[in-house]
Amino acid sequence: MQTEARVGVVVEGGGHRALSSGHAGGAGALDGGARSYSSHHPQQQQQQLQHQPQIGTVAHLISGGVAGAVSKTCTAPLARLTILFQVQGMHSDVATLRKASIWHEASRVVHEEGFRAFWRGNLVTIAHRLPYSSISFYAYERYKNFLQLVPGLDKHRDSVSADVCVRLFGGGLAGITAASMTYPLDLVRTRLAAQTNTMYYRGISHALYAICRDEGIRGLYKGLGATLLGVGPNIAISYSVYETLRSHWQVERPYDSPVLVSLACGSLSGVASSTVTFPLDLVRRRKQLEGAAGRACVYKSGIFGTLRHIIRTEGFRGLYRGIMPEYYKVVPGVGIVFMTYETLKSIMAGMSSVDD
């Protein structure tokens, strides 16, 4: 669940920064990321912390969920194109795939399925966003508190490296937890988005019923191994890149717009994490479609066997099939998430101050 995990947990990272800064002794990600610079820029650091929006947990959850839904809806056409490219190699002649292009595939979708088909599966994506954001937010806080109790780590509480380790492990574990608990919705979304002219699954409830009927309960968790293997490093890379860039930027240029800073740093973190973990995301998609709609299984082995099969039949480039629409999706998608999230936090913080 690469993109979903990245957006869900990295967005929550912004929430933890504001939340932690509101508690005495909190080890917030922003505090940890900028701590090494505070001795050189005490005034800028103080201004930065004073301008962080202070809102409660429920407001954070609402902000994260709405931000994810807005981002997914805006980038749904590119997300569907990514899935269509990723699964083409399963049942298609590889020689014909080299001729495919984003524009050609987009034109085919409009001509054969209609413009609304670009948003096929987006409803289940939005339905997946709220529980995923809630679980990842709650799990991150719990894991972070637990990791800070690890023997020996409390002695290095003021160390930047220790704080980074807590963020990385906490974010990775939170992503794995949220991905596992909401995985069936992710699988249904993939199968709905991968349908073209033949509509085997008629909606979310029908897809869940048909998968359980045809493949058993275990069918709802096809590809979970690739998801869990990739979600940890994906979130760790995205989370650390975002936090590092944002901390540097805000310390060096404290008066820049928080929205623009979030947009730039979020987009770069998305590109970095997608590049490293895209092959596992491709394996996940193909595993999710194994046996769908009664079709024959293509990959008889596990994750690494599937990777070898793809390289043997499609070449190394086959591991990055669909990477371009993924890039086009990640840059605006993650940027929209952070922009929407920071904007909603500011609005809710303003409403809270008015009520007080």
Summarize the structure in words.
With 356 residues, this protein is an all-alpha fold. It has a single domain (2-355), classed as Mitochondrial carrier domain (Mitochondrial carrier fold), CATH 1.50.40.10. It is built from 15 helices and no strands. The protein has helices at residues 2-21, 29-38, 42-50, 57-74, 76-91, 94-97, 102-113, 122-147, 160-181, 183-194, 204-215, 224-252, 258-288, 303-314, 323-355. Helix 1 (2-21) crosses helix 8 and helix 2 packs antiparallel against helix 9. The longest helix is centred in the C-terminal third of the chain and has 33 residues, at 323-355. The radius of gyration is 21 Å and the shape is globular. The protein starts with a helix and ends with a helix. Residues 1-50 have low confidence and may be disordered.
The fraction of residues assigned to DSSP E strands is under 5%
Quick one: how many beta strands?
0
Structural class: mainly alpha
CATH topology: the name is Mitochondrial carrier fold
List the helices and strands in order. Answer: HHHHHHHHHHHHHHH
The top-level CATH class is Mainly Alpha
Q: Mean pLDDT, rounded to whole units? A: 77
- The level of helicity is over 70%
| Low-confidence runs of at least 5 consecutive residues | 1-50
Return Rg in Å: 21 Å
**Cα end-to-end separation:** 40 Å
- The CATH homologous superfamily corresponds to Mitochondrial carrier domain
Family: Belongs to the mitochondrial carrier (TC 2.A.29) family.
Keywords: Membrane, Repeat, Transmembrane, Transport
InterPro entries: MCP (IPR002067), MCP_dom_sf (IPR023395), MCP_transmembrane (IPR018108)
Membrane topology: Multi-pass membrane protein
